[in-house]
Amino acid sequence: DVQLVQSGAEVKKPGDSLKISCNGSGYTFSDSWIAWVRQKPGKGLELMGTIFAGDSDTRYRPSFEGRVTISADKSINSAYLQWRSLEASDTAMYYCARLDGGRLDHWGQGSLVTVSS
Amino acid sequence: QSVLTQPPSVSAAPGQNVIISCSGSSSNLGSSSASWYQQVPGTAPKLLMYENSQRPSGIPDRFSGSKSGTSATLAITGLQPGDEADYYCGTWDTSLSSGGNWVFGGGTKVTVL
């Protein structure tokens, strides 16, 4: 079975750095795209960017470019979402999902990031 | 503001039918197929429909989808209490504002009365 397992909840202060992870299993990780999706409290889904795990080709939604870094390590079947300096507005649930052609067919359980002073 | 437009909410009694619309443009639904996602409160989204009208295994045939031009539709027949959730449409978008990336609709809350 395809599974995406994300790292746990984080509580950080403004200005802190953070890297969350998404580990894939049950399929050939390096043959797939991974998407990162943000969901702020009570709001809808926003795709932040995508990465092809095989060669780390990365595409950012313009509104997220420069604010986060998406990366992958195919040797350990993992993708990452990273911030250098968190802001309170980054408080959200973050999901990774496998992007297979025209669909996000498997999702991680989500990583809750809370940024508060 | 989302690139794809959905009604904020729809509601119906158990056993009735609901239709959720997803309106886009030539840069997204006009050139790519739609997929739909169900998110029960407190849980991760789940793929409900892909390639406009294909159901993944395990999704009941009470759920159906279609697309015409720049709009897609999700229909739920015989509404059940367990269908109460948020529903999102999604597709590729080739516009500069999306960076050639994937976009979602704003989501529709389905309430079972």
Describe this structure in words.
- Chain A is mainly β.
- Helix content of chain A is 0%, strand content 55%.
- In chain A, strands 2, 4, 5, 6, 9, 10 and 11 form a seven-stranded mixed β-sheet that branches.
- In chain A, strand 7 and strand 8 (78-83) form a beta hairpin.
- The N and C termini of chain A lie far apart (40 Å).
- The model of chain B has no long low-confidence stretch (mean pLDDT 95).
- In chain B, a hairpin with a 2-residue loop joins strand 5 (63-68) and strand 6.
- Chain B contains no helices and nine strands.
- By secondary structure, chain B is mainly beta.
- In chain B, strands 1, 3, 4, 7, 8 and 9 form a six-stranded mixed β-sheet that branches. In chain B, strands 2-6-5 form a three-stranded antiparallel β-sheet, with no helix packed on it.
- The A-B interface holds A 35, 37, 44-47, 49-50, 59-62, 65, 95, 97, 99, 102-110 and B 2, 32-33, 35, 37, 39, 44-47, 50-51, 56, 86, 88, 90-92, 96-107.
At a glance:
The complex is a heterodimer of chains A (117) and B (113). Chain A is 0% helix and 55% strand. By secondary structure, chain A is an all-beta fold.
What secondary-structure arrangement, pairings included, does this model have?
The complex is a heterodimer of chains A (117) and B (113).
Chain A: E1 3-6, E2 10-12, E3 18-25, E4 33-39, E5 45-52, E6 57-60, E7 69-73, E8 78-83, E9 92-100, E10 103-107, E11 111-115
Parallel strand pairs in A: 2-11
Antiparallel strand pairs in A: 1-3, 3-8, 4-5, 4-9, 5-6, 7-8, 9-10, 9-11
Chain B: E1 9-12, E2 18-23, E3 35-39, E4 46-49, E5 63-68, E6 71-76, E7 85-92, E8 102-104, E9 108-112
Parallel strand pairs in B: 1-9
Antiparallel strand pairs in B: 2-6, 3-4, 3-7, 5-6, 7-8, 7-9
